[in-house]
Write a structure and sequence with these properties.
about 475 residues, mainly beta, Immunoglobulin-like, seven-stranded antiparallel β-sheet
Length: about 475
């Protein structure tokens, strides 16, 4: 029996600061308190958990089969990038700031002068069911020079991509990327064997596209450190919290950024990979976010344009005022969408701060880039200067996941908007009133003629 050392699960740890292209989107594996030694007498597993739409996403990573070059007892420590002034990962991804202000402990480090290698394997579940990871993030969490290096080995059926990098502003010094493909493996090594260093960096961040397991090696002159993480992206609605949290898994992929086989320069010889928009979106793009409910339903719109596209991805433009007649129907035409799926919408017709079951549209197909939504307007609809509209798009096979206005869907996107509602009763046209009045007069005249008919002569004679 193999004993796996598994500490209690912790909340997922994502960076909240830094200049990285994917701040907030990488679920970093944390291994313990800064500089704490790991017990390597058995495999070590760390699990982070997050809740999305009431369902628990658990990401687990295990490291095992530790080997110290030259023999002896291997040792790894939890590491906080920023411990050393030349570290650059904290400039890209941090919590609280760079250097000593950083509290994100997402690295694994050697002890000075040692070389360690070990296996890694990561997986995820959603409420206990398998949840696919597209790959893993692999980063130099320190600064490599001379004999120091960090390297990752994956199957050659997967793909290494450079997704981020950093060096001090104004520094033109570069470092090396060495890629070797042989024997069914693809090895990426980040080092700087001959060049000088910047004040911070240079150092890179890679993505093992299509791989969730492999082997890592790192050698320190002082210490060297690596960090592992998973790209986890979800989109949320941003109407006020009383309307519930509409959450959609957003499966981004990457293109480009593949280092050439052999030696190349991190900056001069490589381009960064780009995120590829999912095949199912409301409008041309979706920007994942952590959920920012606001009165203006624009919480996620205020984020800057980044690697995933425009921060303001609410590209549908519903009318600012929705005129409705209670007890009739209302149609919202021209909801733009990409892909083939099902769109559903909700409007808070009665102004109670929630989306009721009678405030949902009928399902509409996204066809030829457009969906047309129709509602049966409840009889209690009222005029409101500010109300809310929610749109949700999913793959047709996931239609049941948007039966309600909140909760988790495994595809698509959610968009929220403020709208004004003008509710009116059915007006009787003036021409109808005139016709009715004329008809009444005519009937009255006919009746009068019938009552005062002329008498026959015999009737007059009898009098």
């Amino acid at each position: 029996m193999v004993l796996v050392v598994t500490p209690p699960s912790a909340n997922a740890v994502v960076a909240t600061g830094g200049s990285g292209r994917f701040v907030g989107a990488i679920d970093w594996v944390t291994w313990g308190a800064n500089n704490a030694a790991l017990d390597l007498s058995a495999p070590v597993t760390r699990t982070s958990t997050s809740t999305y739409g009431g369902q628990t996403l658990a990401v687990s990573c295990t490291i095992s089969n530790f080997v110290r070059a030259g023999g002896g007892t291997p040792q790894l420590n939890a590491y906080r990038s920023g411990n050393f002034g030349g570290d650059s990962l904290d400039d890209l991804y941090n919590i609280g700031g760079v250097g000593s202000a950083n509290t994100l402990v997402n690295g694994l480090s050697t002890v000075p002068g040692e070389e360690i290698s070990f296996d890694f394997a990561c997986s995820a579940t959603l409420d206990g069911n398998p949840y696919a990871l597209n790959g893993l993030v692999f980063a130099d969490a320190e600064q490599s020079a001379g004999s120091e290096f960090v390297s990752g080995e994956i199957s050659d059926s997967a793909t290494w991509r450079i997704i981020d990098r950093f060096r001090s502003s104004g520094c033109g010094i570069d470092s090396r990327v060495l890629r070797t493909v042989a024997g069914g493996t693809d090895i990426l090594r980040l080092d700087n064997p001959t060049g000088p260093l910047c004040g911070t960096g240079p150092a890179g961040v890679a993505f093992a596209d299509g791989a969730t397991s492999g082997r890592i090696s790192l050698r320190g002159g002082g210490v060297s450190a690596i960090a592992l993480g998973a790209v986890i992206t979800f989109d949320h609605g941003d109407a006020p919290a009383s309307y519930g949290d509409a959450v959609h898994a957003v499966p981004f992929t990457f293109t480009g950024g593949v280092p050439p086989v052999g030696a190349s320069s991190l900056f001069a010889g490589n381009t960064l990979a780009d995120a590829v928009q999912p095949t199912l979106t409301l409008g041309p793009s979706v920007d994942p976010d952590a959920g920012i409910p606001t009165a203006g339903a624009d919480g996620d719109d205020m984020s800057p344009t980044g690697a995933f596209g425009p921060g303001d991805d609410e590209t549908n433009d519903p009318p600012t005022t929705i005129p409705v007649v209670p007890g009739t129907s209302y149609t919202l035409p021209g909801v733009t969408c990409v892909g083939s799926g099902t769109v559903a919408g909700w409007i808070d017709f009665d102004g109670d701060g929630s989306f009721g079951t009678d405030e949902r549209s009928a399902d509409a197909a996204c066809s030829m880039g457009v969906a047309v939504l129709t509602w049966s307007v409840p009889v209690d609809a009222v005029s409101q200067p500010i109300s809310y509209l929610r749109l949700r798009l999913v793959a047709t096979s996931d239609s049941a996941q948007v039966a309600g206005p909140s909760g988790l869907a495994l595809s698509g996107e959610a968009e929220d908007f403020t709208v004004a509602i003008v509710a009116d009763v059915v007006a009787v046209p003036l021409v109808d009133l005139r016709v009715a009045a004329a008809a009444a007069l005519l009937l009255g005249a006919i009746g009068a003629v019938g009552v005062s008919r002329r008498r026959r002569p015999s009737e007059r004679a009898s009098n």
